[in-house]
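Reopening this one. Same input as before:
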Amino acid sequence: MLTRILLAALLAGVLSGVFVTAAQELRVTPLIIEAETYENVGVAPDTGIERTFFTFVTNVLVGVSFALILTAGVLLTKTSLDLRSGLVWGMGGFIAFVLAPNFGLSPELPGMAAAELPSRQGWWIFTVMATAAALLIFAFKQKIFWMLGGLALLLAPHIYGAPVLATAQSVVPASLAAQFAVATIVTSLLFWLVLGGVLGWLVERVTGNQGLKGQPS
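Same output, byte for byte:
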């Protein structure tokens, strides 16, 4: 049974990777290509099949990784998983991995100024872990002191503050950056909903409509 669940997670990851690649090609990728014209004036950006292929491979790997993370979370909490609950888990993944970090670190286009990569990575990891822990507390721990602890975890990264440059200069127009931020967030939301929904639907099928509840962790 566990093998079939893992295969379902792998398939959900692949399908969500295919979906988000197609979604990115509609809006996100064109904005990146446009930004590259500002970063490298006079040099035409590569818009060929190689870029799309590597984007596709990366998205599939990311989709599979996140599908396995969601599956592990459901197993550890010993909750059921079906289409509806999968969408809930997908929304939780979107909040933890995308929405919360974006309050401090907006999606970046080529040519945009940013703080040093290690500091941004550290803050992002801290924010994701704190937000995910807070969401799990809100979902499974209803006592007041647990809820207050979850709230503290949720706010802690933003009180500490994301790393930013003292003087941030960018060759990319602000309007283009804003469009990219919106497009990236919307695309990420759709990715997480597809991932969670497909994962829940597949797991429900392979476990005989029992979800993951009662499965060995």
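So the earlier flakiness isn't reproducible anymore. For the record, The first helix runs from residue 2 to 26.
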